[in-house]
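Suppose you are handed only these lines of text.
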Amino acid sequence: MATQYEAIENASRDEITALQLQRLKKTVRDAFERVPHYREAFAAAGASPEDIRSPEDIARLPFTVKEDMRRNYPFGMFAVPPQKCARVHASSGTTGKPTIVGYTANDIGNWAAVMARSIYASGGRPGDLVHISYGYGLFTGGLGAHYGAEKLGCPVVPASGGFTQRQAQLIADLRPKIIMVTPSYMLGILDEMEKRGDNPGESSLQIGIFGAEPWTNDMRGEVEARGGMDAVDIYGLSEIIGPGVANECVETKDGLTLWEDHFYPEIINPETGDVLPDGEFGELVLTTLSKEATPVIRYRTRDLTRLLPGTARSMRRIEKITGRSDDMLIIRGVNLFPSQIEALLLKEPALAPHYQLQAERENNADRLTVFVEPRLGCESGAAQKAVQSLAENIRGMLGLRAPVVLRAAGEVERSAGKARRVVDNRKN
Ligand code: DLL
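From them, the structure of the protein bound to DLL can be written out as follows.
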């Protein structure tokens, strides 16, 4: 059995660069000729499609930000007439209008291919039953995973998100080998399996493909140990295509291989916009290389990571995403991401891995409260001790005095999709 789904995944650097350049030139030209926004933005930056002579020349082009997409709602960023599209999706915008993205039939085919590649890299093979609990609908998770699984030749259980009891029942009865779901909702499903009296470690599940939100390696340890499965990370965003921009390879689990033949990555300093060399930490910027309906040039993702050389594949990797720059909390001068609290929480076996952070402003002073729960079956004394130890670690490791509040089991907010890790009441 081949180690990869498509030969290009292990192409030489020269081959990848040549393909990137060819596709980049076409994408930039199409965007310039067909999307007024790009024509205007290029003119304002004094840039033109002829500037692209090597992939690095992309740095001469202006960035695209979410606001550009909002301003051009609904079809202003389309490079083909909406009538020629096969489908639209929309981003999970929390404020204001969603951003609409389009797909031609070719785009759907390419998306299915990168998703098939991603499932294969995760260890999935034709014939494996795939249970999909990403939401189906405008969100790209459900349908993106669905088409990829079908393309690979895997039968699909399109469970979508929610109805957790039914999720656990379906897993027990249909015996899927693979589950695709947000990591936070996987925890909810594992709890439900235990409530039914099933031992998740002995279930049919062998592979979990988790993404759509940040999750730590400590969370990987939790899900792998409890669920008896390999847990791999999948990354993507609707503006670029959906899930399947990058995926971890199960043989290394060392960051996510970015499918560089379809997406061109850069890391920039988020303050200056300067492109940073590989290995340096910053904001991921992505350019589509094959997208026809909504090509995107230098999209600022706000996701923080770094570019690393290939290992299991010749294509480069991104490190597990630490968080979004928008999710960084500044509490009394301390900068922190929810993922840092998550890593410390998972060191406490008496506490469940569910958590939520709440920020408040009282008399001009910021205050962060960490809400947690006891692990099911843990006695309250042990949980109380763990709460103290977590508060001490947050103080010792992150330099922040933050009260940790123990809620009753099941009381920390749950989601059937992306978890809401932070409630920031300072913004109200
Ligand atoms: O979340 C696409 C997706 C679906 C990816 C299913 C993986 C699995 P959006 O709703 O547009 O699309 O949200 C994109 O989610 O910019 C990141 O901030 C975050 N995100 C996605 N995957 C990961 C991940 C989908 N593996 C936004 N790790 C992105 C951390 C992630 N954050």
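What can we learn from it? Residues 13-34 form the longest helix (22 residues). The CA atoms of residues 33 and 76 lie 13 Å apart.
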